[in-house]
Amino acid sequence: MTTREKIASTAPCGLDCFNCASHEANITPEYRARVAELFGVAPENTGCRGGCRAVRGNCLWTRGLCATYACAEAKGVEFCFECDEFPCGRLAPSVDSAVLGYPHNFKLFNLCRIRAVGIENWIENEACSVPAEVRARAVLAVRYQRLV
Description:
Elements: H1 3-8, H2 29-39, H3 67-75, H4 95-98, H5 107-117, H6 119-125, H7 132-147
Helix pairs in contact: 2-7, 5-6
């Protein structure tokens, strides 16, 4: 992926969607099958095609419109750190990700780093480098626990 594509695949909340195991650039057939089973959708409908910006906040994982994405759109900001109310409760760490420490618990940190060093520098030098396979196993483990 080019830097420009990675910028477009960085969510307003600071998630590096381009590193997500569900992103089309990273998804494996095994992960696709497991996500399809988890959500009860066809496998071809599981991969994110460019992150939340590409689907205007309607990510499979949010099961509808993401409130943080909708807020950023309504306020006309590209990233949450540009908002006068930053940081707000929408960026609070999620309980189910606390055990994993990724990805949602890094939103606030990522936003602060993007603001400090710039989006391009952050992408090239700081965005998460945890292998997609490791993130995929962790995310699926939490999601399966929640639904069982």
